[in-house]
């Protein structure tokens, strides 16, 4: 199908993903009326916002788990905007991606849009107006024939304002009777939605409404430190003699995600130095997520950094985790001189070993 070409950056597979924060701490969202209205018969659109992408992403993961548990046969489609990636800044890519995902999950929907799609196929390139008409028609199909559709749009305010045509129309469609009650939309953003958005009053501020019991948080951190140091010492027994320094370093971080990140950095990246050198390196390790990643990135040899950048870009922007073979194909497709037959003959184990050599255990395969 030609639609897959328009969705070339969001139609890959599964099994390779970045480590992320634990979503369970955001289960409180499920008790909010806005969430109950979203998952329940009212199916009102849900909006989450917060400056920390990791918190917002974890919150959306909680919602997706709830959606799949409540409606096991539902079709779940997703799209993420990214202001720093030209491929993920416009609604053209969003409309193509969501339509392609939905038709892949629910092939029977194609019968409802067959004539529209054939008319679109006469054009050299799909127009955004046609893509919107296609997605709108798919989302408006009665749910009694094809089930419920959950749509997750991440970081909606990272869409380029000059390329956001039909974005507001999608929000309005989810908040109207036109979707026939089978279309449920959840969106995230850095900032609160504009007041003129009809369901803005029910938006949930992830940071503001997140409540943590200091005692429970301390127990959680101690538990994570115990688990991570145990795994670290199993993999690197020579570090166990520095357990006091390592525990002190991890205890000062005060964030479970960053604790796990530092532990993985120690496990995969810390060279086999003497005690003095190890202590120096331990004391120099940063505590914030951004600085930890920057420290990790600085340890990747310069010749590998462009490759590593492309690798992470494909992984982060694919709408679902990638299979190793799909990731290898995606990376190879960036070289215009390769033919499809040559791509299919690429060794499958090569890309896996490259990922392990460059990223260590920061990326799970």
TrEMBL record:
Pfam families: NPHP3_N
Protein's UniProt keywords contain Repeat: yes
Annotated keywords: Repeat
Domain Nephrocystin 3-like N-terminal intervals: 27-189
Protein name: Ankyrin 2,3/unc44
């Amino acid at each position: 199908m030609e639609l897959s070409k328009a969705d070339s950056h969001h139609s890959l597979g599964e099994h390779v993903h970045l480590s992320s924060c634990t979503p369970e701490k955001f289960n409180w969202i499920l008790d909010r009326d806005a969430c109950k209205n979203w998952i329940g018969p009212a199916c009102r659109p849900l909006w989450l916002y917060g400056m920390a992408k990791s918190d917002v992403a974890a919150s959306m993961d909680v919602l997706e788990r709830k959606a799949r548990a409540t409606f096991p046969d539902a079709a779940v489609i997703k799209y993420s905007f990214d202001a720093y990636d030209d491929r993920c800044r416009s609604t053209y890519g969003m409309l193509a991606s969501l339509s392609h995902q939905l038709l892949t999950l629910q092939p029977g929907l194609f019968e409802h849009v067959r004539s529209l799609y054939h008319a679109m196929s006469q054009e050299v390139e799909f127009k955004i107006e046609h893509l919107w008409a296609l997605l709108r028609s798919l989302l408006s199909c009665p749910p009694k024939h094809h089930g419920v559709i959950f749509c997750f749009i991440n970081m909606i305010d990272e869409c380029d304002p000059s390329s956001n045509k039909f974005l507001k129309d999608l929000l309005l469609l989810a908040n109207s009777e036109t979707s026939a009650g089978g279309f449920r939309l959840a969106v995230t953003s850095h900032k609160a939605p504009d007041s003129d958005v009809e369901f803005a009053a029910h938006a949930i501020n992830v940071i503001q409404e997140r409540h943590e019991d200091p005692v429970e948080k301390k127990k959680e951190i101690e538990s994570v430190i115990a688990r991570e140091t145990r795994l670290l010492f199993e993999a690197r027994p020579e570090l166990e003699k520095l357990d006091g320094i390592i525990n002190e370093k991890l205890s000062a971080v005060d964030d479970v995600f960053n604790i796990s990140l530092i532990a993985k950095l120690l496990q995969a990246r810390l060279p086999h130095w003497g005690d003095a050198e190890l202590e120096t390196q331990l004391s120099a390790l940063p505590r914030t997520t951004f600085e930890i990643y920057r420290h990790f990135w600085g340890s990747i040899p310069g010749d590998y950094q462009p490759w590593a950048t492309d690798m992470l870009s494909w992984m982060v922007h694919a709408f679902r985790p990638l299979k190793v073979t799909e990731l290898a194909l995606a990376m190879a497709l960036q070289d215009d001189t390769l033919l499809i037959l040559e791509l299919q003959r690429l060794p499958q184990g090569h890309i896996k070993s490259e990922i392990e050599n460059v990223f260590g255990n920061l990326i799970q395969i």
